[in-house]
Specification:
This protein has five helices and no strands. By secondary structure, the chain is mainly alpha-helical. It has one domain (4-158). The longest helix is centred in the C-terminal third of the chain and has 36 residues, at 123-158. The chain crosses the membrane at residues 6-32, 53-81, 87-107.
């Protein structure tokens, strides 16, 4: 059984990964489909504004803070090697660090950076928009599932 500060870390890990999963799920289920239904110039402009807003401290604290917390949980797990929940804790950390944070950095952010360089309403932006929506959304589904799975894995470690 986990106890003390270690227990608190894992509870916060459940909350952090769950909140991030919720944000990603919202994008997968209605934000991106809604943006995709707009004319390309409007979709590009809206997504560029969303990407700028995502760089505000509230989301960055949640997203990056959860990554740091998952790394701390992994390190503490390697040091303490708890008897019955080691797999759940290491799996939860790996799922978030690679499937959520890693996918964001390697797949979603580069697409966002490309989109940021395009002016809404240009032919280049209109041509890129359908591929952006399709590819960005596919990777977002991956990070949604990974974040949910990390949350579940951490929750199982608490039970």
């Amino acid at each position: 059984m986990l106890d003390g500060p270690y227990f608190v870390l894992v509870v916060i890990g459940v909350v952090g990964t769950g909140l991030v999963a919720g944000v990603f799920c919202a994008f997968s289920t209605f934000v991106m489909p809604g943006l995709a239904s707009l004319p390309p110039a409007q979709g590009v402009a809206a997504m560029r504004a969303i990407n700028r807003a995502a760089l505000m401290p509230a989301f960055l604290l949640l997203f990056l803070g959860s990554a740091v917390l998952c790394a701390v949980i992994a390190v503490v797990t390697f040091v303490l090697w708890p008897d019955r929940v080691t797999v759940e804790l290491l799996l939860g950390s790996a799922l978030y660090l690679f499937g959520s944070f890693g996918v964001t950095m390697m797949a979603n952010v580069p697409r966002n950076e490309t989109l940021a360089k395009l002016e809404p309403g240009t032919q280049e932006a209109s041509a890129y928009w359908p591929a952006y929506v399709r590819e960005w959304s596919a990777w977002n589904h991956v990070r949604t599932v990974a974040s949910v799975a990390a949350m579940v894995s951490y929750a199982l470690a608490l039970s």
